[in-house]
Write a structure and sequence with these properties.
CATH superfamily of the largest domain: Ribonuclease H-like superfamily/Ribonuclease H
Shape: elongated
Strand content: 15-25%
CATH architecture of the largest domain: 2-Layer Sandwich
Mean pLDDT: 84
CATH topology of the largest domain: Nucleotidyltransferase, domain 5
Structural class: alpha/beta
Low-confidence stretches: 173-194
Strand order of the largest sheet: 3-2-1-4-5
Number of domains: 2
């Protein structure tokens, strides 16, 4: 159930031409909740940053000159993400850059370190075909406040993506089973007495929330919402 939402900033667009990672931001999700655990590092890339990249993230060579090199933060990064499912927007880009950095150190790749990689860009394209699916568009779609995002930043974008991911996966049932409830002992025999059944009616706010969720499901499924169909079906 441990997920790490991850983002990077880089010197340019292609690690194959020598571009490097200059920032990594990660936040942890457990049981669909942000835990407050995070990993964040600025990295000295040992090369000049492309002006076009600086315009996007605002990170300059002067700012990064006294920051650690990737080799100095690699062990802490690997320890933080090991065994988790990574959640990344446009995962091929970030994984390619991270694998390049790890490969320069003769280290195993992301696919060996982490259990799975989920690409939220691919998810968004399947959910919203033909629409813009960048992070700003998804923040707008799922009601995530991105007003503080003037420039790209790995940690901020990871935090925003975590909220977007929770919005995109809302309604999915958790398979986590709780085993800490006390067991019921039937070994003494006799008749088990049922406690009185308490019926709680939904409040107006809960009913309104229910209607809103059904409307969202109907919109995403092009009108096919089984719950709505059952509610409107005539009684037998």
């Amino acid at each position: 159930m441990r997920k790490i939402v991850l983002d990077t900033e880089t010197t340019g667009l292609d690690f194959r031409t020598g571009d490097r990672v200059i920032e990594i931001g990660c936040v942890e999700l457990r049981g669909r909740q942000l835990t407050g655990q995070r990993f964040h590092a600025y990295i000295n890339p040992e090369r000049v940053i492309d002006p076009g990249a600086i315009a996007i993230h605002g990170l300059t060579n002067e700012f990064l000159a006294d920051k650690p090199k990737f080799a100095e933060i690699a062990a802490d990064f690997v320890e933080f993400v090991r065994g988790a499912e990574l959640v990344i927007h446009n995962a091929a880009f970030d994984v390619g850059f991270l694998n390049n950095e790890l490969g320069l150190l003769q280290h195993e790749g992301i696919e060996q370190i982490c259990g799975e990689v989920t690409d939220t860009l691919r998810m968004a394209r399947e959910m919203r075909p033909g629409k813009k699916n960048n992070l700003n568009a998804l923040c707008s779609e799922f009601g995530v406040d991105n007003s503080g995002r003037q420039l790209h930043g790995a940690l901020l974008d990871a935090e925003l993506l975590a909220e977007v991911y929770l919005g995109m996966t809302r309604g999915q049932n958790s398979l986590e089973i709780e085993f800490d409830s006390p067991a019921v002992d039937y070994s003494m025999g006799g008749t088990r007495q049922r406690p009185p059944l308490v019926v709680l009616s939904a409040s107006e706010a809960e009913l309104a929330d229910h209607a809103r969720v059904l409307a969202e499901i109907a919109r995403e499924s092009k009108g096919h919402c089984l719950w709505r169909d059952m509610e409107s079906a005539p009684a037998a």
